[in-house]
TrEMBL record:
InterPro entries: Ala_racemase/Decarboxylase_C, DAP_deCOOHase_LysA, De-COase2_CS, De-COase2_N, PLP-binding_barrel
Gene3D superfamilies: Alanine racemase (3.20.20.10), Lyase, Ornithine Decarboxylase, Chain A, domain 1 (2.40.37.10)
Protein name: Diaminopimelate decarboxylase
Domain of life: Bacteria
Gene name tied to this protein: lysA
Keyword Glycosyltransferase found: no
Keyword entries, A-Z: Decarboxylase, Lyase, Pyridoxal phosphate
EC number of the protein: 4.1.1.20
Extent of the signal sequence: none
Cofactor entry: pyridoxal 5'-phosphate
MF (Gene Ontology): diaminopimelate decarboxylase activity
Pfam families, alphabetized: Orn_Arg_deC_N (PF02784)
Residue span(s) of domain Orn/DAP/Arg decarboxylase 2 N-terminal: 21-184
One Gene Ontology term from the biological process aspect of the record: lysine biosynthetic process via diaminopimelate
């Protein structure tokens, strides 16, 4: 019997070759990396992702730092994890990694995270392991409801929290993963109205884009501001359910969205799509791949 090649093992092996640092989430993952690094005769750098059990106060689908979540090494396993690390001769622990969730707008969450990071950094250092890198993850949210009024998140308040409450030495690096906060407001999904359907109880705008182009609303009922950019001078307004053409009832960008009276061919802009848009797009239902336009003028 021929064993199928595990794509994860292949990815780990490639990363070891280029001295890539791994964020490790389980004891078994540590053992796999140690085995593969040993075969290559090298040491793999790893950061241990710890589940800090901090509530991010965000949608439960994008909460990642509670005991009930699948991410990271739980606190109860850290003693065992530390023992395994000592036995892994082909692994070097260089850092600790944390990530409690996404789209966080309550800054007290990050203060609570700092307390946990300090606790576990000290725990390792008391046991003789020096931590070079503290990766506090990301999660800083944006204003989806008012993208023009609040284009830039509260970076100053965010970094001030870590500056005041995160304990670190001059030799330690602090890493942040601010993907959404940096790019979400930089992109919009622009779609054309295929049909206007005036129903008995609902008015529908059926777009040529759907959940295959922007998955967030279908996946966890995420809000995006929706604008008719072909009817900016139209005064009369109607509430529409703005939907896509996919044969799924969840293929909906917004319900009861107040928009100018719209017609077939109008261009609809779905705002704040610069994060988790392109990377989550799919060819479900054999849809064509989405096209992307980059411009400083639009």
């Amino acid at each position: 019997m021929q064993e199928l090649v595990n794509p994860i093992r292949k990815s780990i092996t490639r990363s070891i070759k280029i001295s890539f640092a791994f964020n490790v989430e389980s004891i078994q993952e540590l053992e796999v990396i140690n085995e593969l690094a040993s075969k290559k005769g090298v040491k793999a750098n790893v950061a241990l992702r710890i589940n800090p059990n901090v509530d991010a106060h965000t949608h439960h689908y994008i909460t990642t730092g509670l005991d009930e979540n699948k991410f990271g090494v739980p606190n109860a396993d850290l003693e065992k994890c530390a023992a395994v690390l000592k036995k892994c001769e082909s692994i070097e622990l260089v850092g600790l990694h944390f990530h409690v969730g996404s789209q966080i707008t309550d800054m007290t969450v990050f203060k609570s995270l700092c307390v946990k990071v300090n606790e576990w950094k000290n725990w390792f250092e008391e046991r003789g392991t020096q931590i070079r890198v503290l990766n506090v993850g990301g999660g800083l949210g944006i204003d989806y409801k008012n993208p023009d009024g609040n284009t830039i998140p509260h970076f100053e308040a965010y970094f001030d929290i870590f500056d005041r409450f995160l304990e670190r030495t001059a030799q330690q690096e602090v890493h942040f993963e601010l993907g959404r906060a940096l790019v979400a407001q930089c992109g919009s999904l622009v779609s054309r109205v295929l049909y206007v359907k005036n129903g008995v109880k609902k008015n529908f705008l059926v777009l040529d884009a759907g959940m295959t182009e922007l998955m967030r609303p279908a996946l966890y009922q995420a809000y995006h501001k929706i604008e008719n950019i072909s009817a900016v001078d139209t005064v009369e307004s109607i509430n529409y359910d703005v939907v896509g053409p996919i044969c799924e009832s969840s293929d909906c960008f917004g319900k009861e969205v107040p928009l100018p009276v719209s017609k077939r061919g109008d261009l609809i802009a779905i705002r704040s799509a610069g994060a988790y848009g392109e990377v989550m797009a799919s060819r479900y239902n054999l849809r064509e791949e989405i096209r992307f336009v980059y411009s400083n003028q639009l």
